[in-house]
Amino acid sequence: MEALFQNIINALQWGSFYALIALGYTLVYGVLLLINFAHGDIFMVGAYIAFGVSVFVLGTQGLDLPNWAILACGVPLTMVLTAGVGVTLERIAYRPLRRKGAHRLYVVITALMCGLILENGNLALLGASRKKFPELMEKTIWTFGNVSVTNLKVIVIVAAFATFAFLNFIVTRTRIGMAMRAVSYDKFAIPLMGIPVDTVIVFTFVLGSGFAGLAGMLFAMSYPILEPYMGALIGWKAFIAAVVGGIGDIRGAFVGGFLLGFIEVGVVAVFPSTFRDLIAFSILLLILWIKPTGLFGVARHQKI
Amino acid sequence: MLAGCGGGDSDTIKIGFNIPMTGDIPKVGEASKYAAEMLKEDINSKGGLEVGGKQYKLEFVYEDNESKAESAVNAALKLIEQDQVVAIIGPNSSKQAVPAGGTCNDNRVPMISPWSTNPDTTKDRPWVFRAAFLDPFQGPVAVNFSAKQFGAKTAAVLFDISNDYSKGLAEIFRDEWNKKFGDGAVVAFESHGTKDQDFSAQLTKIVSAKPDFIFLPDNYNQVALIIKQAHDLGWNGPFMGSDAWGSAELMTLCGDDCKGQFFSTHYAAAGAKGDTKVFIDRYTEKYGYTPDDVAALTWDATRLVLQAIQDAGSIDSDVRKERKAIRDSLAAVKQFAGVTGNMKFDAQGDPIKCAVVVRIDENGQFVFAESVCP
């Protein structure tokens, strides 16, 4: 019983990362119908930016602020800088193709390529040695019987829920959110209404990448060893989670992320770890068989 | 003319290094390369290696195997066919050394792995040697030490299932522990994948099985994550590790969580004497950190090859004949005094040497705890 509660907490923490990354996929897809395969690597870049910010800018080799101040300034700074990377990518890779009227397929492949450029650029610039993320928070472990929770785990889980609530609010309750949904609905008619499509797209990338930066920072704090390829696998998995949730839908990404987290932790808790991905993705495949649009997705009919 | 294409200058000896400069364990490759460079400078600054009255300059070719099994095979082939090396040092980890050993053996090129401890690396491969002890020896060392040190009756094991080294050692440990304390004395036997970052589900199972300690035959980068997460789950008991912990980077990555833990390894840098101390001091001065066991073993492995070349008496300009000569004199080495201790070689090409158990002290130094000889 205690092991069950412990695993629920483990799964909530692990699922939070999937959910945070899946939200970025779903936002960009929702607006552009583009699967931004570089998103997992933007998450990785976010973790490295968090590392750079908390060591070389605010930390021991920079301003040398106390830990709470590094944390307080580091989170927004990381989010802003990572958003900058996302927007840069949009500017130099996706927008020129869109302007030329390239088919969506080519933009998706460009995204895959950008992910590889980010990974290998990092490898070339910073070297293969792993980076150790500094401990910014005094770790507190609360134990209830045999169930242990750290303050960091609670923060990660709360951050994931807060992010979801915030993005849901932006998309459904604000003017720019309405514009995002409008662009998603019809990209050709919307500029005629006087809505600046490029601004809306840039804003989408700011949101998606900014929260990938937050995920990167939290991930680096929870698993404090960084390497250039850390974003690839988790990025793919979060993308699958977003698809199972119903890509393009914010609730879908959130639920899908946690679903994958729960299945993965649950499988390892019962079976040997080698079965984890096999069983987890078989279950997800089963869900897509029953509902190909994902849990919250709605079937789109292509107009000809 | 044709010979000039491959063999290079006839006054040089070309040795290949198949090491992980990138991938999961880049520090291992770096340590190997640094040790080799130091040795090469030593010899070349004195005019070269003297073989049969003539001086030959050394030329080392470093090939990155990316810590991957398939890349290690490609790197070996490139060294053999393109660079025409006379012998290959490495790969270091068994995950790469087992497949690359097959390639070298098939191509009749002498290979010596500094760090690989899995028996399969050299088994039935007359062209493959090593400088490290074997897991069937290391496993019982860990069993006996932890039973005595922790007063343990039960153990849990967490290992990397996609790594030959980790899996092999975990199984040897389990069998040995169960033999000593009866079936079921290993209360949890859990695995993970190489790219995993979250081990909480496995550790939850282990912690709830209440073992006396956790055996962790894993690479240093994963060790750092696993121990931290075990502490987050409320585990305060001890860990016992294996020689894959012994990287110079372990303490940078792991920090306070690793202090007080034990692991078996090839040598203890703190408190070393004689040649070992000279090697450690020179390396530390040159590169700015204490050499780990991979550096010391690469030093020994490379010196073994150089000694074999000298023992052969002369350099054959035909690279195939030279390789054969080196293999024959390597196989004839009966005893060798290295910085990682004295070794004798058995018929399989495996050294018989002592293992050391070290404790990580409060300052993060690897301090000698016990030495176990076969």
UniProtKB/TrEMBL annotation, chain A:
It holds the Pfam family BPD_transp_2. The chain crosses the membrane at residues 12-35, 42-62, 68-93, 105-128, 148-171, 200-223, 229-247, 254-272, 278-299. One of its GO terms (molecular function) is L-leucine transmembrane transporter activity. Keywords: Amino-acid transport, Cell inner membrane, Cell membrane, Membrane, Transmembrane, Transmembrane helix, Transport. GO terms for cellular component: plasma membrane. It comes from the Bacteria. It is a multi-pass membrane protein. CDD domains: TM_PBP1_LivH_like (cd06582). GO terms for biological process: D-alanine transmembrane transport; L-alanine transport; L-isoleucine import across plasma membrane. It is found in: Cell membrane. The keyword Cell inner membrane applies. InterPro entries: ABC_transp_permease, BCAA_transport_permease. Belongs to the binding-protein-dependent transport system permease family. LivHM subfamily. This is Branched-chain amino acid ABC transporter permease. It comes from Pseudodesulfovibrio senegalensis.
